[in-house]
């Protein structure tokens, strides 16, 4: 029987002979050929060459150097042969086993036996390297290796080879008699604790990291988010009986595989029975590869339970030409390194059973890992001080659904040769390992997509020490890498920071991630708020070992994922000498596949860009892929010749060509082109007489109609610019606009008069004026660079701000709209519905007049009366009509059928998807448009399709207009990344009238796009070059750490059939006791308010559901006729009280709330809590939440999901939830 001394002597002998052969260059080719697999996995050979070395001192030096090389190679072969299920030395004969029989190793060479199954080394190495090559959280690839640490400065492979010289080479896991040298149980790593196979009835509590896994299973029920797999395809048939026997022997051999869990009133417990039966499922499969993979995925994804059932299950799938064996394991008893060990063990067991052997595998006790040091805990407390996870969200994330599923998907991308070459070059130039370079680029990629600048990234690591490298079980951790990406830091500097951060973290990896999470202030109540949302896993190069043999039959590993993702995004970079592959796994609840595909391409491009600008600030590095540039450049290719200098010149040509043609119909009267021109000329003459000069501003205080149209053109003929005033606006607002604009005159009509101190010019009586000949030369009074109009919109200070628009901007847009919307050449009139104090009204007036058409003035009441609108549209056979979504929603029920065959324009507010579907279903040609007043009416337009899905976009830029999406630093963002929409081009105003401070804030210059306006709207490019809107920047709020788009909440409320309008505001302090209040208009059905909480709850995360719903008859409006959210917030604050429709906290005095408060006090051990105290902000965590839910069930009989505690984390809110669930 070989003891430690025998192994040491063998090591010395091998060292001598290996060095001698290497020095002489006489390794035998024949011996090499006998090896299995590629050169890196050839078995060592013990044929000795006893010829003495006679090289003198030089020969001795060569001898020692060669010996070291030979030893390193030999130790590597031992490890790699073990991975393949081959004996460490096929030429050594093992001692007999206690059954008197050997276990045939399946080498094809008779008489080679070992007494028990050895503890084969997996391909992993100690966890000293970045992103240990296993997926220890969700998905895993059985062929993936555990990481080298060489890239972080460690040399674990060298240390292990040296350890082999000292007698710590791989050896059997257990001695036949159960003891090795010194009486210690062979195969049990130092520091491991023996868990008895015959535990008494009393069970033990699992460590926290295992409990956390089960907590996740409870939060996402019926999921296999913690399931791992080991699968192999065998070219032929596997014997079912031998397979079942091998599985059972595997479970008997490894104590950890017999671990089962139970949940009772005391919490989660575990035990290890002396025996545990694990059956083998068999199924037939004769479909294609996709169907086979789907069957395997379903098998792996099936959830495990805490009712004492096994956490291992096996499947044998019989195919047409091959069988697939699949082992599914819960993460609590395994990790990825374990699957590599289990594969080798299973192969050996199967071969022995199939050969008729009767192996008695020695049991391998569970190893429970090291404890944590106070030094490490202190390091993490200092390292994570002040960290807030709210800054980890990406700007391309979607709103998470109400129910968290953790459903995952993945995208695979092979790095371009250019990127791979850059990484190899940067290794040398930056003196950094490949993994650190790749991780640094990943951090920059995340930052470019909105995460940070205080950024955390998770990196899976293997926590096994060298002495326990072959243990099976859950022995991994996610180490947190916290990086501060300062704006001016360079890629070179960030690479150095990344390596330093990683090295520090690895020195303190004994603290589990859950313990580190306790040291961080929790943002919000959502249970997915964590240390990090993004993971980086580097897999170093190893030669391909996916193929192997089992019982003489060819086999290969099969990658079977469980279909889930616990993190928003995980990058797995597998690097080899020739190439590198990125596998991006993502949670489909927050990221789209198209976004992730673009991200991996940008990662590739970023590596190339960073390699060429190592010392440039990160803020100057464009994180764009070639596809981003192609999409955005194509959308912005809008150059076009307009052909007219001004709208006035176009109108003059039409009036001269056909003066008798109708221009404006208003009730029973119709103004012709000639009459309109005559009235305009008369107006110009009177303005000039009143002292108006070129460049002055003239106010128009008139209702819509022919007189207003004549006043517009007359003002232009006088060389002035007009400013529309709404007669319905308050006198104070009108007075401010007149004073601020410096208006020289006011054109008034019947029922209106100019304020005191302003010259009043009556509107021309167009009906009684003689028609004058059209002088087209007079239109030259207005040039393209002259001011066309000044329009006032609401300002953040409460005072409206004036926006001057020039003629070149106006004519560009009017001509493009007329062509785009089919108004040019149409015989059907345009409806003039919009109030003229809105710039959109000029579209309805001027488009037809540039092309010989006419416009019909629709009554003001038609904006809210569907019957009236339908009658007018039908009576005049109107072909083009525009209105806001609010108007369309109000009139759609009555006027919906009349829009068939007509061009419908909607803009000014987000267009709800269901409203778009309604209008499209009615047969309308629907266009959705967008544009701030500062960019001249509409800047983008998109025709809606009947087969559209998802979010309603706003199209793409119109003629001579360019758009870009900017990040907070003003840099243009690529496709799919949300930022502030900026508009450039001919339509952009010069600034705000007499407001240089505000002009500097909202207008800017860009080297590529020129002068632009910051719209304040959140948007992103779609892959098709169209634009999605997500609401206003100032309507994006953070409520207790949860980012909320108020417009998104409103959209959900508007999807209720009885809600015609909705507005959501924040009440209270967003960082403390703030809540959402929803104001809704539900005409005729006030009881619908009580349905809205359930309606919102079904579609929104709990943290986003409004706590109060208030029915209103009408919304307060701003001067520009938009919803006055400030007034609503003030009203909500004044009416603060219990919510309507559920979801709000009740008074603290009721019995149920008091009971829950008592449990909070007991579990949190705090005496200063009240009904509004936040569970997690006062020391609560996930395990305490599970205990709380159990205690509440025991007392009330109502079963709470753990997510209920996370989403209603105060006694009052939780009591209200209990009432709803009771």
UniProtKB/TrEMBL annotation:
Molecular function GO labels: catalytic activity; phosphopantetheine binding
Keyword Phosphoprotein listed: yes
GO CC terms: cytoplasm
Listed Basic and acidic residues bias regions: 50-60, 133-151
Carrier domain sequence ranges: 1147-1222
GO biological process: amino acid activation for nonribosomal peptide biosynthetic process; antibiotic biosynthetic process; lipid biosynthetic process; secondary metabolite biosynthetic process
Pfam families noted in UniProt: AMP-binding, AMP-binding_C, Condensation, PP-binding
Protein name per the record: Amino acid adenylation domain-containing protein
Organism listed in the record: Streptomyces klenkii
């Amino acid at each position: 029987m070989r003891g430690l001394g025998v192994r040491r002597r063998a090591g010395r002998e091998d060292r001598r002979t290996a060095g001698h052969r290497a020095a002489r260059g006489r390794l035998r080719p024949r011996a090499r050929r006998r090896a299995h697999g590629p050169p890196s996995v050839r078995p060592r050979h013990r044929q000795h060459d006893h010829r003495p070395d006679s090289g003198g001192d030089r020969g001795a030096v060569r001898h020692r150097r060669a010996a070291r090389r030979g030893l390193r190679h030999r130790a590597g072969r031992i490890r790699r042969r073990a991975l393949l299920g081959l004996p460490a030395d096929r030429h050594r004969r093992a001692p007999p086993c206690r059954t008197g029989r050997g276990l045939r190793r399946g080498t094809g060479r008779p008489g080679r036996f070992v007494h028990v199954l050895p503890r084969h080394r997996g391909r992993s190495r100690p966890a000293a390297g970045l992103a240990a090559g296993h997926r220890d959280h969700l998905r895993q690839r059985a062929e993936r290796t555990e990481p080298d640490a060489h890239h972080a400065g460690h040399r674990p492979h060298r240390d292990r080879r040296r350890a082999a010289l000292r007698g710590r080479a791989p050896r059997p896991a257990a001695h036949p008699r159960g003891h090795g040298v010194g009486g210690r149980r062979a195969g049990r790593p130092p520091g491991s604790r023996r868990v008895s196979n015959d535990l008494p009835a009393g069970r033990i509590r699992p460590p926290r990291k295992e409990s956390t896994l089960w907590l996740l299973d409870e939060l996402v029920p019926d999921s296999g988010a913690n399931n791992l797999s080991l699968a192999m395809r065998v070219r032929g048939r596997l014997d079912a009986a031998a397979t079942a026997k091998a599985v059972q022997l595997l479970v008997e051999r490894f104590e950890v595989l017999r671990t089962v869990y139970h949940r009772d009133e005391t919490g989660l417990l575990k035990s290890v029975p002396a025996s545990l039966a694990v059956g083998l499922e068999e199924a037939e499969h004769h479909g294609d590869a996709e169907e086979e993979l789907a069957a395997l995925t379903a098998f792996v994804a099936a959830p495990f339970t805490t009712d004492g059932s096994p956490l291992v299950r096996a499947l044998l799938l019989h195919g047409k030409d091959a069988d697939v064996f699949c082992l599914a394991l819960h993460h609590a008893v395994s990790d990825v390194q374990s699957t590599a060990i289990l594969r080798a063990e299973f192969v050996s067991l199967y071969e022995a059973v199939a050969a008729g052997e009767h192996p008695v595998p020695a049991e391998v006790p569970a190893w429970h890992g090291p404890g944590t040091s106070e030094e490490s805990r202190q390091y993490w407390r200092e390292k994570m001080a002040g960290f807030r996870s709210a800054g980890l969200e990406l700007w391309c994330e979607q709103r998470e659904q109400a129910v968290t599923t953790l459903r995952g998907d993945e995208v695979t991308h092979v790095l371009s040769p250019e990127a791979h070459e850059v990484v190899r070059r940067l290794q040398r130039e930056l003196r950094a390992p490949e993994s650190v370079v790749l991780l640094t680029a990943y951090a920059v990629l995340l930052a470019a997509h909105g995460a940070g600048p205080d950024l955390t990234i998770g990196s899976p690591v293997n926590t096994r020490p060298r002495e326990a490298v072959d243990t099976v079980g859950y022995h991994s951790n996610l180490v947190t890498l916290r990086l501060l990406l300062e704006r001016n830091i360079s890629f070179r500097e960030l690479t150095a920071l990344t390596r330093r951060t990683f090295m520090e973290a690895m020195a303190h990896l004994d603290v589990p991630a859950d313990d580190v999470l306790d040291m961080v202030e929790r943002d919000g109540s959502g249970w997915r708020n964590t240390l990090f949302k993004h993971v980086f896993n580097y897999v170093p190069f190893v030669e391909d070992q996916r193929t192997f043999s089992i019982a003489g039959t060819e086999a290969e590993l099969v990658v079977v994922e469980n279909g889930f993702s616990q993190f928003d995004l995980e990058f797995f970079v597998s690097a080899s000498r020739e190439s590198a592959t990125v596998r991006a796994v993502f949670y489909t609840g927050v990221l789209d596949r198209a976004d992730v595909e673009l991200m991996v391409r940008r990662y590739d491009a970023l590596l190339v860009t960073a390699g060429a600008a190592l010392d440039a600030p990160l803020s100057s590095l464009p994180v764009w892929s070639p596809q981003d540039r192609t999409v955005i450049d194509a959308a912005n290719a809008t150059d076009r010749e307009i052909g007219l200098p001004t709208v006035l010149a176009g109108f003059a040509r039409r009036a001269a060509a056909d003066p008798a043609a109708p221009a404006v119909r208003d009730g029973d009267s119709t103004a012709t082109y000639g009459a309109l021109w005559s009235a305009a000329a008369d107006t110009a003459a009177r303005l000039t007489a009143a002292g108006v000069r070129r460049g002055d501003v003239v106010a128009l205080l008139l209702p819509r109609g022919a007189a207003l149209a004549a006043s517009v053109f007359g003002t232009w003929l006088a060389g002035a610019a007009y400013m529309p005033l709404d007669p319905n606006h308050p006198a104070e607002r009108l007075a401010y606009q007149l004073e601020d604009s410096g208006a020289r005159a006011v054109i008034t009509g019947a029922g209106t008069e100019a304020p005191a101190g302003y010259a009043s010019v009556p509107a021309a009586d167009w009906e009684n004026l003689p028609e004058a000949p059209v002088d087209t030369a007079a239109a030259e009074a207005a040039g393209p660079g002259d001011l066309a109009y000044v329009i006032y919109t609401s300002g953040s200070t409460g005072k409206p701000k004036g926006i001057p628009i020039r003629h070149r901007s106006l004519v560009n847009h009017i001509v493009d709209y007329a062509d785009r919307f089919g108004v040019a050449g149409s015989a059907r009139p345009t409806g003039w519905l919009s109030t003229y104090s809105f710039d959109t009204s000029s579209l309805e007036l001027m488009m037809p007049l540039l092309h010989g058409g006419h416009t019909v003035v629709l009554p003001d009441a038609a904006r809210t009366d569907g019957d009236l609108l339908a009658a007018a549209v039908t009576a005049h056979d109107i072909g083009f009509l525009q209105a806001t979504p609010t108007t369309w929603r109000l009139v759609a029920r009555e006027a919906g059928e009349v829009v068939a065959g007509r061009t419908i324009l909607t803009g000014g507010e987000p267009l709800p998807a269901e409203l778009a579907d309604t209008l499209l279903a009615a047969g309308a040609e629907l266009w959705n448009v967008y544009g701030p007043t500062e960019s001249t009416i509409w800047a983008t337009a998109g025709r809606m399709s009947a087969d559209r899905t998802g979010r309603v976009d706003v199209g793409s830029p119109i003629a001579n207009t360019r758009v870009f999406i900017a990040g907070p630093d003003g840099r243009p963002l690529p496709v799919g990344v949300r930022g502030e929409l900026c508009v450039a081009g001919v339509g952009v105003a010069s600034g705000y009238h007499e407001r240089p401070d505000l002009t500097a804030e909202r207008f800017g210059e860009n080297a590529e796009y020129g002068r632009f306006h910051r719209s304040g709207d959140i948007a992103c490019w779609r892959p098709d070059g169209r634009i999605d809107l997500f609401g206003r920047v100032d309507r994006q709020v953070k409520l207790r750490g949860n980012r909320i788009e108020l417009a998104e909440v409103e959209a959900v409320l508007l999807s209720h059939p009885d809600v015609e309008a909705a507005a959501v505001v924040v009440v209270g302090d967003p960082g403390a006791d703030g809540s959402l209040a929803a104001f809704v208009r539900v005409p005729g059905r006030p009881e619908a308010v009580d349905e809205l909480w359930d309606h919102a709850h079904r579609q929104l995360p709990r943290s986003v559901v409004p706590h109060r719903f208030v029915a209103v008859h009408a919304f307060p409006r701003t001067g520009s006729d938009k919803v006055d959210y400030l007034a609503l917030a003030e009203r909500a604050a004044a009416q603060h009280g219990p919510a309507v429709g559920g979801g709000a906290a009740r008074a603290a005095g009721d019995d149920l709330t008091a009971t829950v408060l008592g449990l909070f006090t007991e579990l949190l051990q705090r005496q200063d809590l009240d009904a509004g105290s936040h569970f997690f902000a006062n020391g609560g965590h996930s395990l305490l939440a599970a205990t709380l839910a159990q205690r509440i069930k025991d007392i009330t009989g109502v079963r709470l999901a753990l997510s209920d505690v996370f989403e209603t984390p105060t006694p009052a809110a939780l009591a209200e939830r209990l009432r709803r669930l009771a």
